[in-house]
Amino acid sequence: MPEATWLSTHSASFLVTFGATAAVGEIPSGWQPSQEALVAESCRIFVTRPIPEAARQRLCQACLNIEVNAEDRGLTRDELIRNLRDRDAVLTFLTDRIDAEIIEGGGELRVIANCAVGFDNIDVRAATARGIIVTNTPDVLTDATADLAWALLMAVVRRVVEADRLVRAGKFRGWEPGLLLGSDLVGKTLAVIGTGRVGSAFAMRSKGFNMRVVYVDERPNDALERELGARRVDLETALREADFVSLHVPLTPDTRHFIGAERLGMMKPTAYLVNTARGAVVDEAALVQALREKRIAGAALDVFENEPQLTDGLAELDNVVLAPHIGSATVETRTRMIMLAAENVFAAMRGEAPPNIVNREVVEDRNGR
User: Fold this and answer.
1) What is the reported pLDDT for 35?
2) Does 307 participate in catalysis according to the annotation?
3) Given a cut of 50, is residue 8 above it in pLDDT?
4) Which helix (H) or strand (E) holds 65?
5) Please, which pLDDT band fits residue 5 given cuts at 50, 70 and 90?
6) Residue of 56, 110, 159, 325 marked active site
7) Of 23, 141, 151, 368, which cross-links 70 as Cys (Cβ 3.0–4.6 Å)?
8) Rg (CA), the chain
9) pLDDT value at 41 more than 80
10) Prediction pTM value
11) Do residues 221 and 230 make contact, with C-beta atoms less than 8 angstroms apart?
12) Contacts within 8 Å (CB) and 24+ apart, 314-319
């Protein structure tokens, strides 16, 4: 692939081109440097993917030296290494694997702003060792992800995707009493595994279905207990009692394959599993086997163990709904995520602790605490 072409500092444009086709974003007419720009005009920011117009304008207001990958694709490892040289900051996405070698190559890097709640794509330990701030974007995608989890749950329980395929294939012959029977949601037992921001928002949405809610978390969730009458239980109890299980835990060494063959075996044969957390939280091969043998009724996944690849056999199953990691995929939410990532960068460049810093010890070390 040809070398990247850059339209650089203090010019009238700031987007990047790869290959022969340019994708240039003009600085808004009438633009004047803000006070932030006077502070950060020498800040060199690289953005690994194209970004919404509102976020582009916000970046322009605060920094004059911004370079954005114009192609909507993940950069290769070599491209990341090359483009992080001589940068002060990088806005990354969950498909960007920022490991110790890439961090080492960014010799002047001061902040990695991840446009996601999770940050398992970044070697935080390596960044911390080099005094590089890592940030994420919590809160802004809570509602969109909780909504998508419910969309997936209802789609698999009411067999919406199967019904859509049947109609499109011309096989709908009219109403039939036994056609694509699913399951009720009202009055059933919902297990929420992990009640952080997204898990709590997901649980709260169950109120309209008059569900019995159980949850698994290290700490009691007073809001869920007060508003829903939710009951905190251990994981085995939750899996054995639930009609629907929704996963909302981060991916850590302890939660990799958190749901495997043994725990799938604890679920009812009529139960459904929803995962909008991280793909590797579920042992996908074990899930395929459980779905194939009807040991659980169905599953709905927005994330996969080895994205974008699927485990063999998963796509052939009718009792699973598959979505391409779109939990936060609304125009409003994605724009807010990037805006928040930008604010994290600007705070770091001003020598402040960003509002969503992951490794606060970097700032504390700088301040001598």
Assistant:
1) 45
2) yes
3) no
4) strand 65-68
5) very low
6) 325
7) 23
8) 23
9) no
10) 0.83
11) yes
12) 314/284, 314/287, 314/288, 317/288, 317/291, 317/292, 318/162, 319/156, 319/291, 319/294
**Which residue is associated with the tokens 């010019």?**
11
DSSP line for 285-349:
HHHHHHHHTTSSSEEEES--TBTTB--TTSTT-TTEEE--S-TT-SHHHHHHHHHHHHHHHHHHH
Residue type, 263: R
Residue located via tokens 């709260």 = 204
What does 221-256 look like in DSSP terms, one character per residue?
Answer: -HHHHHHH--EE--HHHHHHH-SEEEE-----TTTT
* Catalytic-role residue among 49, 159, 278, 336: 278
What whole-number distance in Å separates Cα of residue 191 and Cα of residue 215? 5
Count of CB atoms situated within 10 Å of the CB of 139: 15
Please give the mean pLDDT across all residues of the chain.
Answer: 88
Per-residue tokens: 256: 């990799």
Please provide residue 249's backbone torsions phi and psi, each rounded to the nearest 5 degrees: -110, 150
- Assess whether pLDDT exceeds 70 at residue 126: yes
Q: Output the CA–CA distances (angstroms, integers) from residue 250 to 116, 258, 323, 344, in the order listed.
A: 12, 10, 19, 21
For residue 61 the two structure tokens come to 């207001």
The residue from 41, 71, 162, 307 that is catalytic is 307
Whether 40 contacts 56, CB under 8 Å: no
Q: Indicate if 41 belongs to the active site.
A: no
